[in-house]
Amino acid sequence: MKKNFILLASVAIALCTSCKKDEQTEQEVVVADVELANEVNEFIWKGMNSWYLWQNEVPVLADNRFSDNNEFYTYLNGFSEPRDLFNTVQSSKDRFSGIVDDYDVLFNSFAGVAKTTGVEYSLTRPPEGGTSVVGVVRYIINGSDAAAKGIQRGDIFYAVNGTPLFAETNADGRITNSNLNLLSADTYTLNFATISNGTTTPNNVDISLTQQELTENPIHISKIIETGGKKIGYIMYNSFTSNFDDELNTAFLDFKNANIDELVLDLRYNLGGSVTSSTRLASMITGQFNGQLFSREKWNGKWTRLLGSDNNFVSRIDNDLINSVGMTRVFVIATDDSASASELLINGLTPYINVVHIGDITVGKNEFSITLLDNPSQQADLTDGSKVSFPYANFFATTLQNANKNHKYALQPLVGTNENAAGFSEFTTGLVPDFSQPESLGNLGQLGEIDEPLLAVAIAQITGATGKSFLTEVPENLKIKTISSSNSLKPYRDVMLQDTEIKFK
To answer: For the chain, what is the largest distance between any 2 Cα atoms, rounded to a whole number of angstroms?
Structure first.
């Protein structure tokens, strides 16, 4: 880095031993500017200063925080690890912003590609309680190591490599101390147990698993259930992954051709994803609201004035017509591990059709994010013919041209909130179900089958059951209350990715 120099004047007083007179001379002192130790830190601060939803509430992100570049670089040089700086500039309100040191891993995750053993699980307390943790298998990804080794939904593990799992949490349920990182190794052994009569007992089943890079189709199940004189479309959708929107549209073509009477959308393990996919799915479910407002974005004070803010129901995916089924109500299964774009779908549909929520209170993430790369050269044309630059921003996470070649860090900060057509967006404590039916350690059931407890609630409503007898009573110590899950190991989770076209005013 080329150094700039400041010329300073100082006065030196020389005392003459000959007693003639003092001589005053000027002496040049060269002082070097502060040199930035890590350019990633500058990228982090400037990106968050420009885009962060709570920028005006974080003093260190204030536009006038630093008097000059020396003060700015001195502050940045106080952080040897970029993640430490990122954590420091986050608001206490922020639960979901993220940083990665390799944006290829992040982009792969958005496309459904990640390293996994294939075990998708919830981590919860055992019936005995305390700080112990057990994992319950939700489902197995096809083609994975776990699929080859016969692990099934409902299996319980209590330890990894012979070490029992534990997690300490605070009053908000956030983990403060744990050994759950044992599950992040490339290879590990799960130690299984049986739960009976409120007791967790090791069963001497130990299975070694190895992670491999897989592409998971988010459409886990799509089928038509005929019962009680009704034709019910059922789809379990585990991530809003735009790469699979065509496959999602094909599934709805099957529903449309079958002329289904009702629709059950299972989002119980769906932590979110693409805003585009959420808007398209809402349009597949309905079809009668094309062009009307699905959600309205509110950015921070720096960008709200410039950015368009409406995501509307659509009739096409690129050049292909959307297969809409024209529902006037939809049954949505959502739990405490349903978030972000899943909640966006529920909230966005609510002003238009009857959304019957079955399951548990959702996570409560109403904010959306964008992907920030160290790419200060990007510009866009405004409708008045002028230009606006958006340094450090890459909305679509696909164009790396002119990005800094010296590092691959990327940020995924929260940058705005989405409200529905009725103006509602305040659900940070979660969306409350119409029918509360938690999942149970003792009775998970088989996904997509009519006796699976959460799906059974929807079917009971569709076929005319009355009262609350259709709800399955779950003992408190067997309720699955998610502490963490396999989703937490993915490069970025709880995401509502703003990947719709950005319209500048």
So the answer is: 119
Q: Provide the token pair at 8.
A: 């300073």
Alpha carbons 180 and 167: distance in angstroms, whole number: 7
For 353-362, the pLDDT digits (tens) are: 999 999 999 9
> Do residues 342 and 240 lie in contact, with contact meaning Cβ atoms separated by under 8 Å?
yes
- The two tokens of residue 410 are 């990327």
Strand partners for 389: 379
Indicate the helix (H) or strand (E) that contains 194: strand 187-196
Q: How distant is the alpha carbon of residue 159 from its chain centre?
A: 27
To the question of pTM greater than 0.70 for the whole model, the response is: yes
> Distance between CA atoms of 245 and 253, rounded to whole angstroms?
12
115: left (phi over 0), alpha (psi -120 to 50) or beta: beta
Judge whether 442 and 136 are in contact, CB under 8 Å.
Answer: no
Confidence (pLDDT) at 25: 46
Question: SS3 for 52?
Answer: coil
Site of tokens 């298998």: 137
Give the span between the Cα atoms of 490 and 184, in whole angstroms: 10
Distance from chain centroid for Cα 411 = 12
Instruction: Name the residue type at position 154.
Output: G
Residue 89: alpha-carbon gap to chain centroid: 19
With bands split at pLDDT 50, 70 and 90, how would you rate the model's confidence at 259?
very high
How would you label 423-435 residue by residue, b for 16+ Cβ within 10 Å and e otherwise?
eebebeebbebeb
Q: Share the mean pLDDT of the chain.
A: 87
